[in-house]
Amino acid sequence: MSATHFYFIRGLTYGDGLRVFKIDKSNVSGAIDGSLAQQHSIANLPAGFSIANGIWIESSTYQTTPVLGLDFVVTGNWPDQDRYLWHIKVA
User: Fold this and answer.
1) What is the 8-class DSSP label of residue 33?
2) Mean pLDDT across 72-79
3) Closest CA to 76 of 43, 54, 58, 44
């Protein structure tokens, strides 16, 4: 989240990578309509990361350093990459 936007990250289940949704806070007055959001694909991830088993965002709830942007990691897929993380910085 930024001062003006909400961000949503979704892992695509068919091996297509990730999708980041960005929506202006002024367009939000209740339930969020995803069709109003700008969508950005993160594709061409290395083998074992094209389906996100877990997405871990930067958050002040579990870290002591300031949140500086849209920064996150995804976990790899079982059985080959499930013990690895891939770092992604969007903003």
Assistant:
1) -
2) 84
3) 54
